Amino acid sequence: MAAWLKKRDTKIVRRAFMCQRDNLTIRGTEYRPEGDCLPIAIVSHGFMAFQDTVRQYAKAMAEMGYVSYCFDFCGGCVVKGKSDGSTTEMSVMTEVKDLEAVIHYAQSLECNNAREIVLMGCSQGGFVSAIAASRLNNEISKLILFYPALCIPDDARAGKMMFAKFDPENIPDIIRCGPMRLGKCYVEDVIGVDPYQEIRDFSGDVLIVHGTKDKIVNIEYSKHAYEIYLKSKEEHKVSGIVRFFAIGNGGHGFSKKYDKEALVHLKKFLAAGNL
């Protein structure tokens, strides 16, 4: 077995953490391996999901020596979410603020290496992570995106959002998206956004993994993002890694079989950056 696939023989301590964004409390889980001045990994869940849906990635990175965090976005969960906030006040941009708050919390701990931060996100959490990485380019080392929902602004302009349809010229106050009630701000915050302009300033290492059978976010969005990140490396005149992998027959939200394949790419990417 390749060295980067092996688990470290170290104890990982799991504990709850809290931090603030405006007047809201964000709640999540820290996975801390043994050691001092540890690199940081922060994992963001997708739309209508919650932190437990991405904990396998946080655990995998903790096994590789990262102090890892996953958390519930404020108003971003249908069920089981532990953070404050209403779904009708949540948007991609409020989630960017949530993620920035978690980043600053992790940086504030003396036992963490604030200069080595990996952001990872799935679906909407991928879009959020990509925006945060671009805005905090000098603070983020690596970015991992699994089926990032870069389609959200286009969907808003088309008057659709997952299970919901609406008139983009007359956005309703409440949008019923399956079991989730969204507020007008969800659409307003992204309807004029160019996702590639929002993410283009990140010049660190990037891994993008996307399924070829994704019916929610077309894989072409990730392919274009890959080109954007390559161009960013050139413009910033920096070397490093930009990788894109298509998971054959993978859908949106990898099943166990495809998740295993994606985890191999994740571990290999992180190991390569530490050689």
Count every beta strand, where a strand is a DSSP E run of 2 or more residues.
12
Strand content range: 25-35%
Series of secondary-structure elements, N-terminal to C-terminal: EEEHEHEHEHEEEEHHEHEH
What is the CATH C level class, in words?
Answer: Alpha Beta
- Rg is 18 Å
**Which architecture name does CATH use?**
3-Layer(aba) Sandwich
**CATH topology, what is it called?**
Rossmann fold
> Biggest β-sheet, characterized?
8 strands, mixed
Could you characterize the architecture of this molecule?
- By secondary structure, the chain is α/β, with parallel strands linked by helices.
- It has one domain: Rossmann fold, CATH 3.40.50.1820.
- It has helices spanning 55-63, 92-108, 124-135, 152-158, 184-188, 195-199, 219-236, 256-273; strands at 12-21, 24-33, 38-44, 67-71, 112-122, 142-146, 160-161, 164-165, 174-177, 180-183, 205-211, 242-247.
- The strands form 3 sheets. The protein has an 8-stranded mixed β-sheet with strand order 1-2-4-3-5-6-11-12, sandwiched between helices. Strands 7-8 form a two-stranded antiparallel ribbon.
- Strand 9 and strand 10 form a beta hairpin.
- Helix 2 packs across helix 3.
- The protein is globular, with a radius of gyration of 18 Å.
- Mean pLDDT is 94; it is low at 1-6.
Secondary-structure blueprint:
Blueprint: E1 12-21, E2 24-33, E3 38-44, H1 55-63, E4 67-71, H2 92-108, E5 112-122, H3 124-135, E6 142-146, H4 152-158, E7 160-161, E8 164-165, E9 174-177, E10 180-183, H5 184-188, H6 195-199, E11 205-211, H7 219-236, E12 242-247, H8 256-273
